[in-house]
Amino acid sequence: MIKCICINDKGKPNDIPQSKWVKKGQVYTVIFTIMVLPQKTLAIQLEEIDLDETCSPYEYFLAERFMFDLDDIQKFIDFIEECTDINMSIRELMEQTNINERAADTV
């Protein structure tokens, strides 16, 4: 399991109910990753929140809303490749997400 912490809960689309929106400071579990278009950016699906048809057209959260522990980076890259068949370098991952060496203390 890959844990992450929400660091940005601003800009909730009107189509998503508040009950299905992330909360800053909350810990979540990543269960799927995908590159979304047209942004061409990494997005994630969370175990704790089901963005169902009531949230359409939204299905995923942008990875940039979350902080990941530095110790989980390689595990996260491997998971991204399993989900998407996309090869991503650590540098590319760090550009699209927030990495914190101290996040392990809070996750």
Molecular structure report:
This protein is an alpha+beta fold and 107 residues long. Helix content is 18%, strand content 28%. The chain contains two helices and six strands, in the order βββββααβ. It has helices at 73-84, 90-96; strands at 2-6, 27-36, 41-46, 61-62, 66-69, 98-100. It has a six-stranded mixed sheet. The model is unreliable at 102-107 (pLDDT under 50).
Describe the main β-sheet briefly: 6 strands, mixed
Secondary structure: number of strands = 6
State the helix count. Answer: 2
Structure class: alpha+beta
Radius of gyration: 13 Å
Low-confidence stretches: 102-107
Strand content: 25-35%
- The end-to-end span amounts to 12 Å
Q: How many structural domains can be distinguished in the coordinates?
A: 1
Q: Helicity range of the residues?
A: 10-25%
- Give the SSE order as H and E letters: EEEEEHHE
- Strand order, largest beta sheet: 4-3-2-1-5-6
The backbone outline, from C-alpha atoms, is globular
pLDDT average, as an integer?
84
